[in-house]
Structure formats: structure tokens, C-alpha cells
Amino acid sequence: MTTGNATYNRTLVLALLIAAGAACSRSPKAEPFSYEDRVAIAVGGSDKVCVSVKGSLFKPGDEVRLLDPGTQKSWPAVVEPVADPCEPSVSDVPLRAVRVRVTGEQPAPFIGVAIQAPRASWFEVIGGVAAADLDGDGQREFIRSCTSAEGVHLNVWSGAPVSGPRRWHAYHYVGYDMVPSCTPAEIGG
To answer: Is 123 helix (H, G, I), strand (E, B) or coil?
Structure first.
């Protein structure tokens, strides 16, 4: 009788493994990470934070993470329904503006990024630059800002800032003279 039970148990385990494998093969694959859709310009004022996005993501109720690359501080936020519209950042590409509500400590005014990605819930600071693995490829992305004559350039680099592959770039025009701090790599496309 023991041989029969052992055979039955092996058959049952094999059937369960086959069923689990079949279920996993039919599970939906994760959506590829799109920097153009999931990273945006964030401008925090004294009473609101406006986000300027290229894509169709950043819908009301979506959770995002705001980051000020200059101070390496970040805040959780939620995209709000359209109530008090924001003006989009002046850019060389069409942008759509949304307003977000910070769900924790309110930030001081800043120009930075908003990121819609589960892995953007935390950042570490490496060499004075905020970093996180945004796209899940096992390699950190570094988020930096720098200034040009009249605006702020925002960049996301994989691997090493400035020398690694640039994944995303945006420019926010401020309308007044600034002391330039950008390298040519941080401005160029």
C-alpha cells in the first residue's frame, strides 16, 4: 500500500506543477517601462504642484513620486481630478498639465520630476545624486538637474550620470537669467 501512496503523491505533485506552470505561462506580462510616459516635469509652488506630461498616463488617482534633484528630497503625491488647472511647462514638445496633491510633508518650491513607477517609492543618494532602479532592469537610474541661461534641464541617466545612457531629458523655462551649470551632455539631445 505504501508504494501506491507514493505513486499517487508523485502523480499529484507532478499534476500540480504542470498546472502551476500553465497558469504562469498565461499570466500577463509586465508593461515595458516608458520614460516618456512615466517621467514628467514637476514644478512645486507655495500652494500647488503642477506636472507637465507628454503621454496619456498620470490620470486622476494615480500615485506618483515627486523628486527635487537639487535637494535629493522626494514626496508621495496623487494626481488630482481637474479642478484648478495648471499651466504646462514651456517646452519644445506639446505637454499636458495636471495637478498633484502631496500626501505627506509639503515641499518648498522646486523644479524637479514626477515619476509614475512602483520602484520610484524610494531613492538613495549616491555622490550627491538621487538614484533608483526605475525600470526594473537591475541598474540604477540617476536623476539630475542643472541650469542653463534661462531654465532648468532635467535628466535621467542609466548607470552613471552624464556618461551613461540618457533615458529622459526635459527643459523647464523659468523666464529669468540664471547662472549656467549644465555640461554639454546635459543640454544636448
So the answer is: coil
DSSP at 189? -
User: Beta strand pairing status for 110-115 and 39-44?
Assistant: antiparallel
Residue 77 structural domain? 35-187
**Per-residue CA distances from 163 to 29, 47, 57, 134, 141 (Å):** 31, 37, 29, 18, 12
The per-residue b/e assignment along 161-183, b for 16 or more CB within 10 angstroms, e otherwise, is bbeeebbbbbbbeeeeeeeeebe
The answer to whether 94 and 115 are in contact (CB under 8 A) is no
Q: Per the domain annotation, does 28 fall within a domain?
A: no
102 within a domain of the structure (yes/no): yes
Residue 145 burial (CB count, 10 A): 24
70 is a domain residue: yes
In which band, very low, low, confident or very high, does the pLDDT at 25 lie, cut at 50, 70 and 90?
very low
Domain count for the chain: 1
Q: pLDDT-based confidence at 178, cuts 50/70/90?
A: very high
Q: Is residue 27 part of a domain?
A: no
The predicted-structure confidence for 68-118, as pLDDT tens digits, reads as follows 999 999 999 999 987 666 877 877 677 888 999 998 888 999 999 999 977
pTM of the model: 0.79
